[in-house]
Each structure stands twice: as C-alpha cells, then as structure tokens.
C-alpha cells in the first residue's frame, strides 16, 4: 500500500498538474502532444477538479458543450486557440465551425460526469444543470439518428479516433478496406514529441487521414457517412458508455423535472439495451467489435469488453465469464486492465492501445464491477492503478507488464482519476449514485 506521505505528495502533484494544464475554462490533456480541449478527457478531468474546485469542474463541461454542433454532435477536439504545427489541425478537418473543431465525436461520458457532480457537490444545481441536460439530450439523439439510422440498437463509429481507443488491433481489419491512395504525404507531430515505439505506426496513420479526407469531402454529412463511409464499426466501449450515459440522463432529467428528456432518453436506452447483445461473442465469451459494413465480428477481447458491466445490468452467466477472464488476464500480466488481450499475438505492452493500461478506463471498469457486487475486483483495479501512478507518475498510460509509463507526461485524466478515485484519500468517497 502507498504510505500517507507519498499519498499526500501525489495528491499535491495531481492538483498541480490539473492547474498547470488549465487554459481558462478547459483543461488540455497534456501540454505539447494534445494542446486543445478533448471531449472525454475534459469530462473525466472534471471529476478530479471537483475534488478541490466545484465551480471550475462545472465550467469544464459547460465549455465542452458550448462547442456543440447545430446537429447535436459534441466534437472530439475543440481548437480554442491557434497552435502552430499541430497535426491534424483545423485545416485538415475543415469542419466549418466556430471555434474550429474536429469532424467526429468521442465516447459520451459527460452525462455520467454531470450526474456524479450533481450528486456529490453541495448546493442546488438546477440552474446550471438544466441547459446541460438539453445539450446532452441533443447529443445523445444525434448518436441515435446519425450513428444508428437503421435503429438496430448499436451506434457506429466512422473513425478509430471516435472510440477514443485510437489504434486498437480491432480496427486493423476494418481499416484494411479503406483506400489510402489519395492521402499523399504529411508530417506527423506526435512522433516528434513521443517515442515512436509507443505511437501508432505510419501505416495506421495513412488510414486515419484517409477517413478524415472522406469526412471532409462529404462535409461531415451524417447521411453520406452512414451510407458510404468505408469504416463503419460498432464496438462495446462506445455502446456501453452511451448506455450508461442514457441511464444517467434519465435520472438527471427526472431529478431536475424535465420529463420530455427523460422520456426520450428512456426510449433510446431501451433500443440500446436490446441492441447491445449483437456485440456478444460466444467464442470469446465477451463483447467484441462488430464491423457493420461487412457484418464481421472480431472475436478478441479488449478493455472495452469489461465496460458492459458499467453500461448496464449484466446477466449472471455473462458476468461470471467476465470475472474469470479478468483474473486469467491478471495472472498473465502484473497490472490490470490491459487495453488488449495479453494472450493474443497482436498484444504489445507499450504501444498505445495495443496493450497498455489507462487509468480512466480502469475507473469505469471498477465502477461496473462494484455495481455488480464485485468490490474485491474493483479494489484490485484501484490498487493496480494507484501502484502504477506511484511507480511511474501521471503518465498517459502504463505497461501492464512492467508498470513503465508511456506517451505524454503530466496527463490530466490520470491526475484526475488519482484524485477522484485511486488515491487512498479518495477511496471512501467513490460511491456512484
Ligand atoms: C488519444 C487517445 C484519446 C484521447 C486523446 C487525448 O488520442 O486515444 O482517447 O482522448 O489522446 O488524451
């Protein structure tokens, strides 16, 4: 266990990082590598900020939602200020928005965060929360309309970056159908800042840019994207996070007397509840990625598979399968939860989403485990997360094998997850509503 003195030092350091990454109303994930507002980073970071500054935590969400598109989408990056040389920047995305944004979204954790803040912070939040709930309702409706126009009950992503798990091996097969012949040459910025061995490969990046080009060419028209985007994939993390967000939105709408929102969110939730089963794989005994364009399942498990427990109530047999696989993975590596199956040939413990552990995914998995009564497993994950941070600092992610830190340093959501959840000083407070 981490001693009280180290705990106090890490608590201070985490607050210092969040304050240093604060850009007046929003927090950058880390300086240099990610110098703008990122969607789910910002929402999850608000949980950490709330441990010392309630007003500033609310601002984080308000600022993010203020960049919502007219069609309801809340973008994955908001370019609030100019940053020389960032790639791919506003010129590549050409979203036509003010402020400029990317053209895609990210996992909608914001409603869940708003519920956490509203239930844990003192005061009457009605005036502040009501406009947020209207914005969240529009965003969730956008998911239903734009990303599941056929009403099958799972939402699709049109770019790996939409999942927030950028270079997961799950995308390799769906990306192989994306034509990269018109991408041309470009200069990546990420590999100038971070060790190349930890980042996606150039081959992957060509495919990412081809999809950005596709979106730009159709001016991010959701109908064209749904009908013809070569990458159209349903994956368990995005769908589980959206289910959770809809449940939290229903609860908030009832609490703040917005029955129309509660009604719409309940209907969307029912559709997602039925659809999620399409991602179950008997072979893998877990939830997996489904390439909707080619109706092809990837029978490999990822950290996203465990989020079914966070998304909603799980049946006993499937829950048991999750617990035993989790323990089987734990025996293979030293720190849970790896982003990809450590038994698989594609596992790479330090290359971005092909193996490493992320603190905020761990928080979500642990939350789902605790809600299913597995406080022991939730605690194991919290302890592993704390041990990683104590060993390697507030890095972007960590090797599940060695505990070594990777990617960016002084990372906001790692600091936030420490303050809100993994630090020994946070433990008694982390009961979800
Ligand atoms: C990477 C991650 C994504 C995150 C962003 C900023 O792109 O894959 O999930 O939002 O970095 O931290």
UniProtKB/TrEMBL annotation:
Domain Mannosylglycerate hydrolase MGH1-like glycoside hydrolase: 34-414
Gene3D superfamilies: 1.50.10.10
InterPro entries: 6-hairpin_glycosidase_sf, 6hp_glycosidase-like_sf, Glycoside_hydrolase_63, MGH1-like_GH
Stored Pfam families: MGH1-like_GH
One term of GO molecular function: Glc3Man9GlcNAc2 oligosaccharide glucosidase activity
Assigned keywords, A-Z: Glycosidase, Hydrolase
GO biological process per UniProt: oligosaccharide metabolic process; protein N-linked glycosylation
Source species, domain of life: Bacteria
Protein family per UniProt: Belongs to the glycosyl hydrolase 63 family.
PANTHER family: MANNOSYL-OLIGOSACCHARIDE GLUCOSIDASE
UniProt-recorded name of the protein: Mannosylglycerate hydrolase MGH1-like glycoside hydrolase domain-containing protein
